Amino acid sequence: MIAHSGDGAEDTGQEGALVTRRALIGGVVGAGLLSVGASVHNVAMADELSAAGPDLQAGGHAAFRADAPQVYTRSQWNARSPKRPAKVVGRAPDRIVIHHTATANSSKRSLGHAFALSRKIQAWHMDRNGWDDAGQQLTISRGGIVMEGRNKSLKAVQAKDLAVGAHVLHHNDHTIGIENEGTYTKKQVPGRLWDSLVEVCVWLCRSYDLDPFQAIVGHRDFNNTACPGDRLYARLPELRRSVAARMDGPSDANNATGGPEAPIFPPFDGFG
Ligand SMILES: [Zn+2]
User: Fold this and answer.
1) CA gap 202, 214 in Å, rounded
2) Residue 14 domain-assigned?
3) Which residues of the chain, if any, have pLDDT below 50?
4) Distance 224 CA to ligand 1 centre (A)
């Protein structure tokens, strides 16, 4: 297991629809797509599918019916091997911790940009912070693309376990962390990112049987940090309500809250 390349990529035993989905796109964007979900509104993804061919696009739309978001695996973003495999504890987390990456509010929405972001965060956490791997379990780009962070995270969610990360000091053993690309001290969250964040939280609350009003918190609720920024933090009550409504109601993810804002490019100052 140690130094196995791309933990999370070799997952097997997915349900039939997912296997079909994986087989469908496997040759185009890489094997190992773990799950698909109600991401039809994700324009960035639709663009990628469209570029890959009409058959793929049609199949993709047909498959976007499940209750889990599409999460790109570590092998897909070409993660480095962790220094050590993540510790997995046999219990669900009780908190979902919302972060911002404190990086540029990029206007780029592509898969390539999102994958590069994941690689950059992993390199920062391993090389600058000296951690075993990327600290957070999940990452969402400003284009709404959802990616696995720390190794073993996706399998752990599916098993209702927790792959222990490094994202909230003194509270890593009972929390799962989501890094949202951007800096939300003054700027608003792009609609695509927001929609994916709602989807991811619905998925996690369902998987772990969590009450969104209890479970969803900001990094600053645990540590002395500005993360996830005043703007994103101020929307956590709305996030909890949206997640709760989705869990109670039909699986209609398409409650977009508006398009992306004009991009700015603040100096790179780390990953929150
Ligand atoms: Zn944070």
Assistant:
1) 13
2) no
3) 1-65, 252-269
4) 10
Whole domain around residue 100: which residue ranges? Answer: 88-248
| pLDDT score, position 250 | 60
In a domain, 211, yes or no: yes
Residue 231 inside a domain? The answer is yes
Residue 49: its H or E element: helix 43-52
pLDDT of residue 113: 98
* CA 180 to centroid of ligand 1, rounded, Å: 9
d(CA 228, ligand 1 centre) in Å: 6
- CA 52 – ligand 1 centroid, Å: 35
Cα 100 to averaged position of ligand 1 atoms, centre (Å):
6
Q: What is the pLDDT of residues 70-111, one digit of tens each?
A: 999 999 999 999 999 999 999 999 999 999 999 999 999 999
> How many Cβ atoms are within 10 Å of 249's Cβ, its own excluded?
8
- Are residues 100 and 183 in contact, defined by beta-carbon separation less than 8 angstroms? yes
Separation of 169 CA from ligand 1 center, angstroms? 10
User: Would you state the pLDDT for residue 68?
Assistant: 83
CA of 272 to the centre of ligand 1 (A): 4
Classify residue 197: in a domain, yes or no. Answer: yes
Number of structural domains the chain divides into? 1
**Residue 225 CA to ligand 1 centre (angstroms):** 7
The CATH number linked to 217 is 3.40.80.10
Q: Maximum CA pair distance of the chain?
A: 50
